[in-house]
Amino acid sequence: MDKLVSTLNCTLHLRDGQRSFELDVDFHLAAGELLALSGPSGSGKTSVLRILAGLESRAKGRLVFQGQVWQDHTQHIFLPPQQRSIGVVFQDYALFPNMNVRQNLHFALPKNESTALIDELLEVMDLQDLARAFPLELSGGQQQRVALARALVRRPKLLLLDEPLSALDTQMREHLQQYIQELHERYALTTLLISHHPEEIQRLAQRVLVMEKGKIVAETIPAEERKKGFLLRAIWMGVVEGKAQVKLGDNLLQTAVKGNEVLAYSVGEVVWIRMLSKDEFEVLPKTS
């Protein structure tokens, strides 16, 4: 279970203009999940991403990614970004203007790695014909496709997206959403997406955490994405009329109990569930 689930539990003092507040978050991220962070500007979403990326060393707490401790202030552990298996895409693309598309990708390639992945990503992102073009010769959508491809050159396990499509018009944003979805599935990524757009979250996310003033205030599952077998942490609510019930954020989910299934949990206990379809899940057995 430890290698399938990543956890972040931390606090950090933040200042937003004249206002200061405490970031205090505790959440999990299942392997292969696409999790969205939503909430008003200044609620701490980007700070969470910076902690995951290794760009914020002041946070107190513990960050474990798929069994590896990335950050623990009590043990003086802090892995820098280059030692974390991450890819990061920001809103402003951050491409090197003096390098063409292929060179931008090659710059991120680990030493002694084959360039075959660059060719593959150029094909996947429909950039083959633009490989020799420079950033200033590209549209905003094309530049963001290059930024997405570059983030995957290091074969990361965790992809961090900080409002990557917010500067694009609606049509281009919808086009890029398809690329993100395809990349997430093709390369078996675990992805954290920060977005202000409900339709984008609805289309891409399997689960949504809503933040306000540095805290997670709600957890929801977009209706059309309650599927795909990903792992979620829930609260056991017991068996009622032959149906197992769990609480996930503000949602009460229930599914039929199989005839030989033994669920030795107490009401209020944390359990792990795997979504099997829009309306069905299974409760994972206790681990010793």
From TrEMBL:
Residue intervals of the ABC transporter domain: 5-238
UniProt xrefs under Gene3D superfamilies: P-loop containing nucleotide triphosphate hydrolases
SMART domains assigned: AAA (SM00382)
Record keyword ATP-binding present: yes
Keywords associated with the record: ATP-binding, Nucleotide-binding, Transport
One GO MF term attached to the UniProt entry: ATP hydrolysis activity
Name of the molecule in the record: Molybdate-transporting ATPase
Lineage, top ranks: Bacteria, Pseudomonadati, Bacteroidota, Saprospiria, Saprospirales
